[in-house]
Amino acid sequence: MAENMEEEMRIENKTSDEDSMSDDSDSSESDENKEQDEAYIRELEKELSKNPYVYNKHVELIKKLRETGDFQRLWSAREAMQQLFPLSEELWLEWLRDEIPLVSEQEERDKVEKLFENAVKDYLSVPIWLEYVQFAIGGMGSDDGRQRVTDVFERAVTAAGLHVTQGANIWEAYREYENAVLAGLMPQAGAVVSKEQEEAFTAQSNKIHSLFKRQLAVPLMDMEETFAEYKEWVGGLVDPEVEKAFNRALAMLEKVKPYEDELLAKHQMQEPSLLEAYNKYLDFELLEGDPARIQCLFERALQENCLQPDLWLRYTKYLDEKLKIGSISMVAYERALRNVPWSAKLWCNYILMLERTSQPFETVKATMDKALAAGFTEAADYQTVWTVYCDYLRRRINWNADHDKELEVFRLSIERAVDHLYENFGTEGDPDASLRQFWANIEARHCSNLERARELWNQVMQEGYGSQASMWMAYYHLERACGDAGHCRRILQQALNSVTDWPEYITKAYIDFEREEGHLEQYELACSRCEAQLARINERRAKAAEKEAVLKEQKKQQRTVGKAQKKAEKGQENVDISKIEKVQGKDTVTRNSSEKLVGRWSATVTGAHSVNATNRKRKVEEDDGAQGFKVPALPGATLPAAKKVKQDEDLSENVDHGEFVHHDSSKDNITAFVSNLNFEVGEDRLREVFGECGEITEVRLVKNYKGKSKGYAYVEFTQPSEVLAALKKDRQMLDNRPIFVSRCEDRSSGRHQTHFKFATAMEKNKLFVRGLPFTCTVQDLEAIFGQHGKLKDVRLVTYRNGSSKGLAYIEYENEETAAQAVLKTDGQKIEDHIISVAISNPPPRKAPQGQTSQVPTLGSGKKDTEMRGKARTQVMLMPRAVQRGEVKPTKSSGPTGKSSTSAEPHSSGDTSNTSLSNADFRKMLLK
């Protein structure tokens, strides 16, 4: 027995020791977790101190502080977030429910009441109003407690009592409160009721009856049950007016039920956007025309679509045009711009509303400063806001009274606007110079300051607007209205020599002006100048038309030659090469040797080898087997079907030397063309990369004459579907360089059209990011933007060598996530770089200069410099040895019978006009 007792004591001591060790372990683990939480909190606070406009960081900090129970820091974090962003219903309820249990003194109660006031301003929320009235009921013990409760209830039913699906909760809470008050006034059984008690009881009963009457006149869900409760309360003696109002409300409820059912269905399906359904609902309510219901529905829509500028614009427009209550409109604009500060239209309407309601200049100016700090993405947005503000400043000026101060403010502001737009966006900031035109008109018409007006117009003309007839005519009309005939004549003469887009407009204005103001000599001088200028312009137009006609003819010839070449390659018919050369405008018999050299170079570029060139190559090989003088062919160049066996041998030899890669055009549909390759990438590496797309038949890497890669290759598959898989690798990085993957197409025929890979219109689910550090990677961007929603794609814009341009495109799954991400990331700091984030809306793509010009057909007689402007190089391609001989003029009889002079190269060798071989050129070079 003693042994058993000792064993039990030993087990008990062991258990006690284990529990003690477990407690110590839990304590140490808890301390470690606290340290980790504190480190994480400090990191979040540090990040927010650098960039406070990151919405998710605020949310994460509040969540972590709430977990740790540090309520003092939690209050500060919530207050800092509320200053920058409107808080959602969930964030407000969480905050309020944390603070209400801590209230013990009147000062703390007042603090929480201020929180409620801020909460109900952000969005319409029935749960927040219910919390508010419940909190107010808890303060009934104060002197004016009952009156404060009644005031809160009245505000609640005004704001949310018309909410079709949730408004009944507010009404029922109100009636329950008033019934409780009525029960308190009911006398005890057997007690003598005084006249004052009876009057108080009757007044309270009438108040409840009024609440029933008001509620039953509103279309609310389950209003039949409320009517049944009313009948029971009045003992079946229903007021006819109440029943009539109930029937009208019930009929309206039947009309709005389809819209409510659609919203409910979308909620249940968890659709991300309800905007379309709300817009249909609003269209119906606007036809009905009840302002209170319309305003309530707008508030419901905005609660769930708070980041939609168009919805805020529609709401504020309704308030401005229908309600026309300045205090309500001002609150709505302030809320709108807290949610969508990037909407320039909202800022403009806000400024106009402030002017309409006669707000002080300081208020409008402060609003303008906030608008400029909002960070618009487009120059047009800044121009629009500046224009509205300058219009407002002009309307402040009373020209019939002392206006020096207002005029000075206008001048300083519009000058600031012009400088701001030009410094940030160049001439694109104000593409029509509208602000300076407006300023010049004010100076000339109202201030009689023509010198300043002319200075402004001269600045405009010197910035590149001098070729536009409309700008000169605007300047002329201002001078015509406010200036003198001499300046008008000078303007028209300058315009005549400068305008290129519509000269007829200027000539007509010039001649009409001299008819009205000038004498005979001035009129005749104007007519002669206009006639001479129009003649020069018509001559240029004729040349341009002729050039365009030549280009069209050359394009047609290119198509004809391309078809003939394809038929020759496929062996469908025998093509006479001399006919092709005739179509191209060649004359191989009469050309001099320098023309032959250039012709041979051009023929190699286009892949159309002539019979003479083939014979020359064979002659060199038969003589001494040397390579001779060769011009390397472009990748993908094809040869005619004639002499197929010999050509195949030549091609295999060229592949060994890296000078030529043959591609069979019949396999275009199963071949991918890869370019912009790193020069160190070999065929094995390409097989490894594209092997994921399917079975590879052959990889042909194009090399130079030294055997080194030229940076592009052909990857041939077995199936066309495998090429589609390969195209998905376009722009992917390979050895720190983006590769370009495209279909293998014949681009020499002129039928190929380049299609831009990415969208060129607005994509509301895609963000454009600029100002990134050049060291930022795709992984960094995924980490930064992934926390704001699910990413669909991240594309870092790079140069051809793989170096970052500091730009990126971030694509989200939906538009709402992208809109929130803009709000939370625009202006964020990344490695000492403040990034700019906006919805992707690229400007219209302009055709590259000279794109309409086609490459001249071989032998067309036009030099490259005549067709496409200045040539890429001014170096003559003819070897110097060919130029050594003395050039002697020879006379020949032309078609008219008159002698003409031509120049031919003179040498001691062969002087005939037959084609020179590679060996001939080698002899001349080695001479």
Can you give a write-up of this model?
The chain has 35 helices and twelve strands. The strands form four sheets. The chain has a four-stranded antiparallel sheet with strand order 2-3-1-4. The chain has a four-stranded antiparallel sheet with strand order 6-7-5-10. Strands 8-9 form a two-stranded antiparallel sheet. With 927 residues, it is of the alpha+beta class.
In brief:
With 927 residues, this protein is of the alpha+beta class.
Structural class: alpha+beta
Poorly predicted segments: 573-659, 849-877, 880-913
End-to-end distance: 127 Å
Q: How many strands in all?
A: 12
Look at the structure and give the mean pLDDT: 80
Give the overall silhouette.
extended
State the share of residues found in helices, binned by percent.
55-70%
Strand order across the largest sheet: 2-3-1-4
The largest pleated sheet is described as: 4 strands, antiparallel
- Rg calc: 42 Å
As a percent range, the share of strand residues is 5-15%
Number of helical regions: 35
Task: Sum up the structure in keywords.
single chain; 927 residues; 12 strands
List the helices and strands and how they pair.
Layout: H1 2-50, H2 55-68, H3 71-84, H4 89-99, H5 106-122, H6 126-137, H7 145-160, H8 167-185, H9 195-216, H10 223-233, H11 240-268, H12 275-288, H13 291-304, H14 309-323, H15 326-339, H16 344-356, H17 361-372, H18 379-396, H19 404-425, H20 434-445, H21 450-465, H22 469-482, H23 485-498, H24 503-517, H25 520-570, H26 577-584, H27 593-606, H28 611-624, H29 644-657, E1 671-675, H30 683-690, E2 696-703, E3 709-717, H31 720-727, E4 740-743, E5 763-770, H32 778-785, E6 791-798, E7 804-812, H33 815-825, E8 829-830, E9 833-834, E10 836-840, H34 864-868, E11 887-893, E12 899-905, H35 918-926
Antiparallel strand pairs: 1-3, 1-4, 2-3, 5-7, 5-10, 6-7, 8-9, 11-12
Helix pairs in contact: 1-2, 2-3, 4-5, 6-7, 7-8, 8-9, 9-10, 11-12, 12-13, 13-14, 14-15, 14-16, 15-16, 16-17, 16-18, 18-19, 20-21, 20-22, 21-22, 22-23, 23-24, 24-25
